[in-house]
Write a structure and sequence with these properties.
binds magnesium ion, 8 helices, globular, 31% helix, binds adenosine-5'-diphosphate
């Protein structure tokens, strides 16, 4: 999906900006007055207890959730630029008995040709090139329902990178992934940030990786409670108050 430009100034190269965003569902305030800046090349982590509104904020950025406030994207010197967003949703589940292969999944998303007509040689090459971005070429003929948590995240990541987005959004990509898989996925996201001109916004409950990988951390609890570096947020009084009050995540 696309997000329009904003006129405000920002010293960084390009920037996704959320200003005074609030979300109400029925009479319930889910998010109030969220302000967030995401600069190109940055990994921004959203943390917070369950029900804090993290996924709702991502859905608002994706245009899947009504909100008040402004969400905009800017590139200095380019007028009317729109942001392309890539999205990996929270733990989608696939039936192990489902015959859909990774190649079929890509073909459905990338081709107008019905999957039952088969995948052309050119399309298969394109799919392999996409999977190469996540070192996943060997997964091409596997059934999606049989992939491990880490393999599924890599496949979904490869899908979200085609076409290359300006902002890559991942909702809890580390849940359902084992410890080695987590490290591998974070290294991959780090490489993607260094290779392509994009930024990453992800939610996570795995605070251990924030120091190493996150440029900015936002603690969300129905709004932004605090933000800063991993050390600033994890050592803050607010962090301890939020998680102590909720009794953990
Ligand atoms: P998080 O991702 O931080 O766990 P969510 O954004 O999923 O939190 O949810 C925040 C709150 O919004 C929760 O209380 C949830 O029940 C509520 N909520 C989310 N989506 C809906 C919806 N479609 N209808 C009603 N309430 C919703
Ligand atoms: Mg969520």
């Amino acid at each position: 999906m696309n997000i329009g430009t904003h006129g405000g100034s920002c010293s960084h190269s390009c920037c996704l900006r959320v200003q005074n965003l609030s979300v109400k569902i029925g009479s319930e305030s889910i998010l109030t007055d969220v302000n967030m800046h995401v600069h190109c090349g940055e990994l921004v982590a959203l943390i917070g207890p369950n029900g804090a509104g993290k996924s709702t904020l991502l859905k608002a950025i994706l245009g899947q959730q009504e909100y008040s406030g402004v969400i905009s994207f800017s590139v200095p010197g380019q007028r009317n630029r729109h942001a392309k967003i890539g999205y990996v949703p929270q733990t989608p589940s696939f039936d192990p008995g489902d015959p859909v292969t990774v190649a079929d999944l890509f073909a459905c998303c990338m081709s107008k040709r019905p999957a039952f007509l088969g995948i052309s040689k050119a399309m298969r090459e394109k799919i392999l090139a996409c999977l190469q971005r996540v070192s996943g070429e060997e997964l091409v003929d596997k059934r999606v329902g049989t992939l491990s948590g880490g393999e599924l995240q890599r496949v979904l990541l490869a899908l979200a990178l085609e076409p290359l987005p300006n902002v890559l959004i991942l909702d809890e990509p580390l849940s359902g992934v084992d410890v080695e898989g987590m490290e591998a996925l974070m290294e991959m996201l780090d490489d993607i940030l260094k290779t392509y001109d994009l930024s990453i916004v992800m939610t996570t409950h795995d605070f251990g990786m924030l120091h190493k990988y996150a440029d900015q951390v936002y603690l969300i609890d129905r709004g932004v409670v605090c933000s800063g570096t991993a050390a600033e947020v994890l050592d803050s009084r607010s962090f301890h108050q939020v998680f102590h009050r909720k009794g953990g995540i």
